[in-house]
Each structure stands twice: as C-alpha cells, then as structure tokens.
Write a structure and sequence with these properties.
Helices cover 42% and strands 17% of the residues. It contains 13 helices and 13 strands. The chain is globular.
C-alpha cells in the first residue's frame, strides 16, 4: 500500500503528462480542459483535417491558449501515434463508440513505447445480462474485445463507466433524440419508472483525470454512479415541469413494442436502442460484484458534481 501511495504522489507531484486522443469530440474536449485544470502538461492528438477545419478552429485555439500542445496524426498513422504516445505518461482515449476497435491500435502503440503509467478508456454500458440489438450490440461486442485485450496486456488501465451523457439523456428528458427538453410531449419508454444515471460531460472529464492520477483506480472500472443524477423519465419530466410551470403530454411506448421494432429493423436507431436498454430494461441498475469495479464516490466523495436539477436550469428561458 505504501508503494501505491508513493506512486500516486509521484504522478500528482510531477504533473503527469496527458495525451488525449479524440480531443475535439464531445467528450474529448472536456478531458483536455480537465487535464489542463489539474495543471497536467496536456497534448491533444488531432487529425490534420481538424486543424484546417474552420468549425474546429475556435476549439483548437482555446486549447492552445490554455496551454495544450496540438499533435497532428491519426490512428492509422502508426509512427505519428507512437511519437505522440512518447510525449505522455497517461493516454486517454475518447474515440467514438463506432470506432472502439481502433483502440487496439492505441494499445499497440502504448506497448511499443513501454513507459505509459495509465491507459484510460470509457464505456457507457455496465450491464451485460441484458439482450442487445443492432448497432448497440456491435458496439458492446467491440468494447468487450478491446477491454479483454487491454486487461490481458499488462498495461495499467482505468475504464470510466459513464452511463449516460447528460447532454443526451437529461437534456432530452430521456428521449435521447435531442439536446434540449421537448416543448409539448415526451416519449417515454416502458412505464417510465426505471432509473438511469446521467453525468455532465465536464464532470466525466474531471472524474477521468482524477482517476487517471489516482493509484486506487489502477486496473479498475470506475462507475460514475452519482445519486443526485439517478432519475427515471417520469422524474425528469416532473422536475422539468416544476421549473417551467408547463405540463407535457406523456406518451408511453411498451418495452415489447420497442423490442419488436428492433427485431423487424423498423426502429433500430442507435438512440432508441440505448433508450430501450436504459429506460425499458433498467440497464443502469445492475449491482457491482467484481473486485475491479468501484463507484466514483468511494474514491472522491468530496468532489462536487453538477446535479440533475442544476443541469436542467441551463434550459430554462
């Protein structure tokens, strides 16, 4: 235990160098900001096309103004990837779920470099006892393959189990098809009473960096189970109605009808698959049974996070 404390002190006192892959994405940008906020030398690995993209110019400029260093390359460019990894102590992968298998290329680079203290990855599905369909099933299978390979590699890792992005889950009141609350009616999965966990992207970034710097999170799956953000669709709707003073029409879709639409292919969009898993099957509520699973508040009980009530305030006009 004393050796772990020494390693933790070393990582925090030396300002561990952090490489963020997928830095311009919806999650990656918050990881970059969190790393900078922790005074870690921060490197953002971005595609050359992103540097020349006017839509991302402001974001990249903000990174540089805050002290981040931009490194250009792609996951397909092995030499560039390895050179980027050499700059870091910690590698954080923020790749899109559709590209999970590409993380095996990152792992290969980490193994080649041989000096990385922590490889941080993300997941949003903790329960594997639920039946999956379509694109969600493919993403879960890819994530399982990557995690099995990482765990067998000997590379120190931390997997952040995010559950649901607040910008999708909470902002849409559980519909997952928009980034803002509905104005007249809300589509509810099942009876609307199964709860889900939702976390703001800025808090995901903050917890990811804190876990990356903490020896207690090494070789662990860190679950972002935040009690003030554990709500059902019905509860989210009620909170929103209390803020606006307007009642929304609640339209319910049974779990059976959702499942049938997946089986015949008519309604198997990724967001509906996630909604079914989360709110119709209760996929966020499985207990943690393994020694490598830990809840984030066990590690950082003192950290203040953005609760659901406060998050929804940003949409009140």
């Amino acid at each position: 235990r004393e050796r772990e404390r020494e390693r933790e002190r070393e990582m925090s006192s030396t300002g561990s160098r952090v490489l963020v892959i997928g830095a311009t994405g919806g999650l990656g940008r918050h990881v970059v900001q969190a790393s900078l906020a922790c005074n870690c030398p921060t490197y953002a690995y971005v595609r050359p096309s992103a540097v020349n993209d006017p839509g991302k110019a402001t974001l990249l400029h903000s990174f540089q103004s805050a002290g981040a260093i931009l490194l250009q390359g792609s996951l397909e460019a092995h030499d560039s990837l390895v050179e980027a990894i050499k700059q870091a102590d910690i590698v954080v992968s923020c790749v899109d779920p559709a590209n999970y298998l590409s993380e095996l290329k990152i792992l290969t680079g980490i193994q080649e470099v041989g000096t990385i203290k922590r490889f941080v990855l993300f997941d949003y599905v903790a329960a594997h006892s639920v039946e999956f369909y379509g694109a969600l099933k493919s993403a879960i299978e890819a994530r399982d393959k990557v995690m099995t390979t990482v765990m067998g590699s000997g590379v120190p890792f931390t997997c952040i189990v995010m559950y649901g992005f607040a910008s999708y889950y909470l902002a849409s009141l559980g519909q997952l098809d928009s980034r803002a609350p509905p104005t007249d009616k809300v589509l509810i999965a099942g009876d609307g009473d199964l709860k889900a966990f939702m976390v703001s992207e800025e808090d995901i970034g903050m917890y990811a960096i804190k876990a990356a710097l903490d020896s207690r999170a090494e070789n662990k799956n860190v679950h972002l189970k935040l009690p003030k953000n554990h709500l059902s669709q019905n509860e989210m709707v009620s909170v929103w109605e209390s803020k606006t003073g307007k009642t929304l029409e609640r339209v319910y879709e049974s779990e059976e009808d959702m499942r049938k639409s997946f089986q015949d292919g008519s309604g198997a969009t990724f967001t509906r698959l996630l909604k079914h898993f989360t709110f119709a099957k209760g996929g966020h509520n499985q207990p943690l049974n393994n020694s490598n699973e830990v809840e984030v508040l066990e590690l950082f009980p003192e950290v203040e996070y953005i609760n659901a009530d406060r998050y929804l305030d940003r949409f009140v006009k």
